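Exam prep: given the inputs below (a chain plus alpha-D-galactopyranose), describe the expected output before reading on.
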Amino acid sequence: MDCRPLIDQFIRRYGESPETIRVVYAPGRVNLIGEHTDYNGGRVLPAALRLGTWIVCRPRPDRRILLQADDLPDQVDVSLDELDQYKSLPWGNYQLGALWALQTEGYEPTGGEYLYHDTLPHGAGLSSSAAIEVGTVWAAAIMAGHLLTREKAGRLGHLAENRFIGVQCGIMDQFASALGKKGHALHLDCATQDHRYVPLHLQDIRLVMVNTNRKRSLATAPYNERRSQCEEALATINRWGHNYAHLCTIPETDWGQLEPLLRENDQTTGQVLWKRTKHVVEENQRVLSMADALEHSDWNRIGQLMRQSHESLRDLYEVTGPELDALAEAAWQTEGVVGARMTGAGFGGCTVNLVNENQLEHFMEAVGRQYRQATGICPTFYVSDSADGVGEVSQPCLSW
Ligand code: GLA
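Solution:
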C-alpha cells in the first residue's frame, strides 16, 4: 500500500508538528486449522495476512490520546490517566485497551495522535481487533522508545482483549498478528507459547477468504459458553482422579476411557460435554497432521483435514451455522478447490479456501452463485498472501 495519502490525511487532520510521524502495519490472520483449541491449551496454525490495520502516529508532549480512523466520523480525545473509563466506547476501546495493557505491565506510553486505516473487514473472523490491539501496542511502544519482543506485543494485545474489552479469547489471534511470517503459517502451542514456522509452498494455490456477510460479534456470541463447557468437561474428567492441565493434553489413547466419564453427567449435559471434548482432542491432532501435510505439499491430505475440521466444528462443536456450512459445501463441490473450512470463532464470519489460481474466477462465480441461492446473501471474496507480523514501515511509501 502507498502510505503517502494516509500521511497527508494525517497532517490535514492533526496539523504539522516537529515530532516524527511513524507508520505501523499489523496484519489480520486466517487460521488454517486448530479451531477452538487455543483456550484449551492446544495447537493452532494461523497465517498473518496482507489485510490488516495501518496506523499513522506521532507522539505528543502532553498526556492526550487522539484517535481517528480514515473511514469513520468518531474522534476520541482522552487522557492517558483515565483510560479505564472508556472500556465501552463504540469505537476506540481496542486502541485504548492496548495503551492500558502497556501501562498495566509497567510501560509508560506517551501522549499521541493516531490515524487508523483498515483493509480488513470488521467482525468477519479475520482478527481485525487483534490487528488494532497489537498494532497500537507496537506504535505506542516505538513512540515511547520501548523495545518489545513480538511475543510481548502479542501478550499485551491479548491482555487488552481479555481484561479491557472483556472477551475471554485465547492467544492465537494476537500471536498471529505479532509473529506472522511471510510464506509461512505459525505453528503455535498455546499452552507453552512455543512456536515454529511451517512453510506454505503454495506456488499456484491462492489463499481465499469468503465472508458470509452474516454479522456477528465475538463479545455477544456463544463463544464464552463454549469456553465454559470445555472447563466443565475438564473438571468432570479430573474429578475422576485425572490431573490434566488442559483438554488438549488428553492423549488420544486415553480418550476411550474418558468418554463414559463425561456421559455419566445428566444425559444432555454429558452428551454436550462429550461432543465438545471430542472436537478439541481430535482438532488438536489435526494441527500436527496439517503441519506435516503442508511440509510435504500433500494437497489431498490438506483438503481432507480441512473438511474434517469443518465437519467437526459443525457436528461436535456446533459453531458453524447455515451460512458457513453453505459456503464450505459450495467450495467442496467446486473444481480447483484444494480445501475449505470455516475459520475463526464461527457463528458467521469467513471460510478459508485453498484454490488453484487458474480456477479463481470459476471459484468465485460458482461459490457466489450457490451461496446466494442457499441464503439470499452475497458473499465477499478476499484473496491474500501471507504476511509478516506487526512492524514499523520504515519506508512509509512501500507499495505492496
Ligand atoms: C477467536 C478467538 C481465538 C480462537 C478462535 C477459535 O478468533 O479470538 O482466540 O479461540 O476464535 O479458534
